[in-house]
Amino acid sequence: MKPPTVALVGVHGHGTSHLGHARDLADQGVLRLVAVVDPRPLVDPSTGAAGARPGARLAMADLERPIPWFPDLDALLAAGPPDVVILCTPIDTHADLAERAVRAGCDVLLEKPPTATLAELVRLVDVAQDLGRAVQVGFQTYGSHALQAVREIVDGGEIGQVRGIGAVGTWVRDDEYWARAPWAGRRTLDGRPVVDGVTTNPLAHAVATALLLGGASTVDDVQEVELDLYRANDIEADDTSSLRVTTRAGLRVALGLTLCADVHTPPRIIVHGNAGSVVLHYTRDVIEVTGSHGHRTIERGRTDLLENLLAHRADPDGTPLLAPLSATGAFMRVLEAVRNAPAPRQIAAEHVDRVHDALGARLRVRDVAQWCERVADELRTFEELDAPWTVRP
């Protein structure tokens, strides 16, 4: 059997990582990378000339492995649909492009967030199911073997009864981050929902993974979403927020998230028990356990989501998708709550510093990391904790 054909839609920004990974898998014979799609033509590095016609064989970084280029998805599909499409495009385009690829007979690896509204998610799930197509969402942590290890520790009673789940994400994003694309930091663009922001995009993995560990993956698994949305930057979306989700089973999941920290730290998820805790460093697949057996550290690997999608295509019954579209419903309940919430409140200037350092020109919210820690530890929102920027005159 020939390896399945794969096309990448969106090759700039985060798309470059997908391109590199797809090329590596192509070199291993796992897939055939047959096209890239982007409005901006690829550039011939030897001449600086840009491709001017669909199908122009130009490479991103060298001419030894040229890849046909198409300006949009329709042009690609007209030339012949590939087996799999990787979609790494602006958020507001996800639903439409994914549906068009599915209707053309393609399976899809769709970057997060999967859609810009809950209604779009429901529609896309229905279309994919009706047509028998597979849609995998790019929540890489869903492929982490550490998730099952955490479940086994909890089920074994080592930390006692679970009383809640917290998560901390204290990242840094500079001014250029918010200027990188027309949709960056926007709630809407040209009348269409975008729902960018710390909660739904850069730290969406923290939200989705914490919910998954709390037993919430589908739309119906979420009972309530409480939001406390703020912004320091001059944007529409939130850059510093806390949220608390109550699952259908009554478990509380609370997250303290910011893109305005003093330093960039790895995010983590904490499962709180009445006799200990489990901390998942989800970007590294590392677990720290403190419980009845003392303290220990566990490292696990992960299954690549693109490889999992390809394996599922070859054996749908024997290899289930790790991050199927329907398993992102709980996360999308949070995104929908953010979309329908009032605009994030501006953090007063007295709590914000303008910083110019090795991390770039940016805004820093004073002591924000400690307040995010408290949200995760105490399972309360910024406002409930009386974080200084929440106190109104």
Overview features:
393 residues; alpha/beta; Rossmann fold; Dihydrodipicolinate Reductase, domain 2; 2 domains; nine-stranded mixed β-sheet; seven-stranded mixed β-sheet; 11 helices
List the helices and strands and how they pair.
Blueprint: E1 5-9, H1 15-27, E2 32-37, E3 56-58, E4 67-70, H2 73-79, E5 84-87, H3 94-103, E6 107-110, H4 118-131, E7 135-137, H5 146-155, E8 162-170, H6 175-179, E9 188-189, E10 192-193, H7 204-213, E11 222-231, E12 240-247, E13 252-258, E14 268-273, E15 276-281, E16 286-291, E17 294-299, H8 305-314, H9 329-340, E18 345-346, E19 352-357, E20 360-365, H10 368-378, H11 382-385
Parallel strand pairs: 1-2, 1-5, 2-4, 5-6, 6-7, 8-13, 11-18
Antiparallel strand pairs: 3-4, 8-14, 9-10, 11-12, 12-13, 14-15, 15-16, 16-17, 19-20
Helix pairs in contact: 3-4
Describe this structure in words.
- The chain is α/β, with parallel strands linked by helices and 393 residues long.
- The protein has 2 domains: 5-140, 3-Layer(aba) Sandwich (Rossmann fold), CATH 3.40.50; 146-301 and 325-390, Dihydrodipicolinate Reductase, domain 2 (2-Layer Sandwich).
- It has 11 helices and 20 strands.
- The strands form 4 sheets. The protein has a 9-stranded mixed sheet. It has a 7-stranded mixed sheet with strand order 3-4-2-1-5-6-7, with helices on both faces. Strands 9-10 form a two-stranded antiparallel sheet.
- A hairpin with a 2-residue loop joins strand 14 and strand 15 (276-281).
- Helix 3 packs parallel to helix 4 (118-131).
- The longest helix has 14 residues, at 118-131.
- The chain is globular, with a radius of gyration of 22 Å.
- Mean pLDDT is 94; it is low at 44-63.
